[in-house]
Amino acid sequence: MVEGGIGKADKTQFTELWNTIRRNPYIAKLAFSAGIGGLLFGYDTGVISGALLYIRDDFEEVDRKTWLQEVIVSMAVAGAIFGAGVGGWINDRFGRKISILIADVLFFVGAILMAVAPAPWMIIIGRIFVGLGVGMASMTAPLYISEASPARIRGALVATNGLLITGGQFISYLINLAFTKAPGTWRWMLGIAGFPAVVQFLLMLSLPESPRWLFRQNKAEEARAILEKIYPVEEVDDQVNALKLSVENEKADEQAIGENIIARLKGAFGNKVVRRGLYAGVTVQVAQQFSGINTVMYYSPTIVQFAGFASKQTAMALSLITSGLNAVGTVVSMGFVDKFGRRRLMLISQIGIISCLVVLSILFYQAASHAPKINQFESTHFATNATCPSYLSAVNPSSWNCMTCLKAKCGFCSNGASEYSPGACLAKMDDLADTCQGQHRTWFKDGCPSKFGLWAVLFLGLYIICYAPGMGTVPWIVNSEIYPLRYRGFGGGVAAVANWVSNLLVSLTFLTLTKALGSSGTFLLFAGICLIGLIFIYWFVPETKGLQFEEVEKMLEVGYRPKAFRRKSKGDKPVPA
Fold this sequence. Notes:
By secondary structure, the protein is an all-alpha fold. It folds into four domains: 11-207, MFS general substrate transporter like domains (Growth Hormone, Chain: A, Up-down Bundle); 208-257; 272-368 and 450-577, MFS general substrate transporter like domains (Growth Hormone, Chain: A, Up-down Bundle); 371-444, no CATH class. The protein contains 26 helices and three strands. The protein has helices spanning 11-23, 25-46, 48-58, 60-64, 66-94, 96-115, 120-147, 154-178, 186-191, 194-205, 211-216, 220-230, 233-257, 261-270, 272-289, 293-306, 312-340, 342-369, 376-380, 389-392, 402-407, 430-438, 453-467, 474-481, 488-540, 549-558; strands at residues 411-413, 424-426, 443-444. A three-stranded antiparallel sheet has the order 2-1-3.
């Protein structure tokens, strides 16, 4: 997924995973129960893409105000930034289990508020609640799984949480499609997320706290009792001793780097190894978001409508393909990331993303240029005052086409003979839309009929194929490997905040950009930003595949340079390009 991490695991770990959970189903119960948080994370970030189409139908002010649509979508991201920060404190102070239970309450309250919302402001409040839950779940679920699972299958179980995130997004698109004909449409789409939150809450009540957290709270006997359920009897003593040593080292590291955020920031940026690690870690996280991925995940049906598919059902059905490809791409990355390397996979992915965005920009430009013309007779034969006022007062109405009509905040009623023939430009009113459709014509208000539309959807899918195995998952892996041990949690946290903030900026401005620059200009802008991201990745991000943490630290101590710009000297040890 876009906002969550995916653990590093190989085929051996997945084989061991199946064997272990078959012998000890308790481990599967722990991982599945916590993993529902990942499912909720994915569902609540994906469901708004389809629900927004119907919210706009029910609330005229949402349909008219682009910024209000952006706020409804992005407030979950804003809540997630705060939720992740508060969640870290709750995790340390009260435990992982309590944090997951609180996240479930937030998910449930947010879902109910949105389902019964009488006005847009309540949907926004509900989105904030859901966002708080997303922020807490994004860090707590994988943390709980990693601390409550055997080391030999830890990577595979955490990776499964990542799959549940993308799976949750895919399910949200299926739910959206299933409720398109149901009374209440978007209320069901948003409200149904309360059900898995209740299921997880009830399951977590019967499960223990993380043994690692208990050990940190000097509750060694309780921690040992849990480890006895997870490990074979002969391994328990070794695991207790290893956990004790690990916690002691962790506490020593915390004292060394400082207890408050200011001290940690000063220590991190004063250490050139950590500083260079942050350059790489933050670069890949920001580049991930500014690839525009969440414009697709949050606004996919809207983008499909921009491409000329007026039907909401068709838009959501085609959007389902992009979500499915994202989930498949996440699985594919597991097989390629250790074979091709992190750096190479990101560079190839970024080149593919740029290429697809440029082609999408061209396609949307061609679609706008070849939009159906406006026919004066078609526009004036409807009811009195039905014709778009701007069209009637235009100096040169013969130059108008469908896109000109939509930019004037009017609607396009297609020609009855063919959608691509000259049609009518009418005032944007519900009764006129009904009249248009009553004459077996199609009503367009977000995009124009276009022969390029299907190609745009195909390249949107290709964009996802390029994104998911590389920029979709690798940045999280890089951030788990690039920092010295004592700064790993801090560095990963800083990079995650950069990821969430970038996500917020993108989701909060996408529709405004499309209004100002058009779909073509917006995709071209993202392509340009991705090109900058490609340059930064090439210059700042080293290859960490197959390197021990100590080797990565030594490489950053010297200072990383791309192979083409590296000065060679005798006796130099080869460094991965």
